[in-house]
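Today's session is about reading a structure prediction critically. Students often jump straight to the picture, but the first step is always the sequence itself: look for stretches that repeat, for charged clusters, for runs of hydrophobic residues. Only then move on to the predicted structure, which in these notes is written as discrete structure tokens rather than atom positions. Here is the chain we will use throughout the hour.
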Amino acid sequence: MWTYAAGISADIRPASHGQWDTLPLRNGYVWRTAIHADNALSLNLLLESFRLNDGESLYVYNEEQSVIYAFDKRDNRDNRLLPVESIRGNTVIVEWDVPAREAAIPFMISNVGYGFREARTGGSIIPLAAGECNVDINCPEGNRWQREKRSGVRMQVSYPDKSGVRHTRLCTGVLVNQVGEIKKPYILTACHCVSTEEMAAGTTVRFEYENETCGTSSTSPVQKTIAGATLLASKRDLDFALIELLSDIPENFHPYYAGWNLSPDAPVSAVSIHHPQGDVKKISTDKDALSTSTYQDNELKCMANAHWLIGRWDVGVTENGSSGSPLFDPEHLLVGTLTGGDAQCSKWEERNGKLIEINKPEKDYYSKFSYQWNTYEADSLSLQSWLDRNNTGVKKLYGYDPAAPFEMPCDTLSHIGRNEAKMLTTSGQWGALTGHSDKTRTAFAERFTNDSIAQIIGIEANIAKVFSNGSQVRFSIWTGNEYPVTEVWGKNITIAKQYRNTSLQIDIDGTLTVTGDFFVGFGINYIPVDTFAVYHSTWRMYEGISALYVQENGGIWKPLSDEVPPAYISLAMRAIGKFGKEKPEPDNNKSPARELEIVQTGNGNIYTNVENHSGSVVVECFDVSGKRMQVHEINRHFVILDAKTYLQIHLNISGLPYGMYILRVKDSNKIHTGKFIKQ
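Below is the predicted structure for this chain, in token form.
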């Protein structure tokens, strides 16, 4: 919790303040008033008696009009309150557009929040907010948390003091998943952030408030905020509150509903995603096992053993404003929310010629999700009845992505194992084999065979080199049989130098459904000067057709196995999603895949018979990991068996290492597959 704005009571109404003008082009009227507060760092508003009619609009913006909040009748609430998030600066303009001057006055501005502390608000960067040791969520440390980050929200909470004047504090919350198909906009946070219905009604939440890339100071210009909520459950001695937003979350906010884990076992490591001092989204990591503890301070006495203790953060810290933020276990499941602690950025002081750490990023306390669940039976004091409405007894629920058609851990598809060694090879005179080089290759793509439906939600690249000023790269997914043909998804990204020698995960912001073979890769430019490369597998010790295809100077694609000398390697890239879980809908014009009977002759050769083939016939061989292997066709001819005509294809497999293989024969309207073992 972090109070950054003091409340000033007001009574500003269109009937007594501001100026009216006509709108001749729109055949209507506009009322405007400016609110100014000397030396204020930011201003926020609370409107009462708010109710707009058809054709009416309300706008709140700064003098530069770089930040604009827009409202209409869809923002009407039963409590007739409208909190407006802070805008940086000491002046805001309120504008009410109406079709008729004699319209009833639908609101009054009853409170102005005077920002007296530095905070990052309204999409603009204000220095001296979060401590320097905090790490942006879009830096490499946050790479594997790109879905979970979308569940974290910054909260601005209007709360009354003893005299009734409303001040403003900043906290963090998390959008949390629920058992069942219906997903409501439930935000979990700390009770010391939101403890009454009045405070919930005066709350605004902001989604996707983050630096666009690591090492930059630019956020999205779109203000993705929702105003107003209702309090569902809270308990002070467990320091949690569950609120429901009063509006559905738009798709372009890219929400993610965080999964959760009720296990009482201490996580072996943990990650927190939060908004320290209202700053853009940060990530903190503790690589050590957590322990059970009890939280108490001068104002809050919590239940014994109801908190997880972070002994010391390994990456980042938390600060005021991080309260209520989620704590995730290694399965990326929610296990707690932040109550408080002593974490802070380290400070060093030289003493007797040695640097001594005088402030240490240690001791944070997170209220246990398992205690919040049903320690108290009443609906207003527990989470169970809200997150498991039918009391199914679920103990673990994975996160839900509205943009993806599945709710479970994702698969990854790659031709390189997680623990397999990776390398980078130089190319000729300069550069890398899988990046910028004297070969002027402009695109690289890894081929994946796919006989069912692939549902792709992202890709991952294991990056080896990045230019010192950042690299401009386009990541893509193509479809095609022999070569990449059609780009079905692409995203241009500026990659910061911090990603050198690490992995980068890129979300698709939806689900890409692909039938048939597909390619995952990237494209690069040579002007302006750049340096970029992705790792590849170690050199394969057998003859095979490389899964890696390259494009030179924007020309034709070819596999690296066609190089002189040939290169049998795979690109260190992964597809993320679900693969091979569903079969494609039948095509009435095509026959289903058929099982091949494969006969081994004992002299290093095999043959197979293909019935009712049509058009040209293509033969491919793959190992069990999906890598395409080289087999030599000896001949093909027609044979008659049981009064049926077959195309018999003879192949030499002597060049294959021992193991199991998949043979695939394709013609114009069907696919035949079969397995054989090279002994």
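Discussion point for the tutorial: The chain has three helices and 50 strands.
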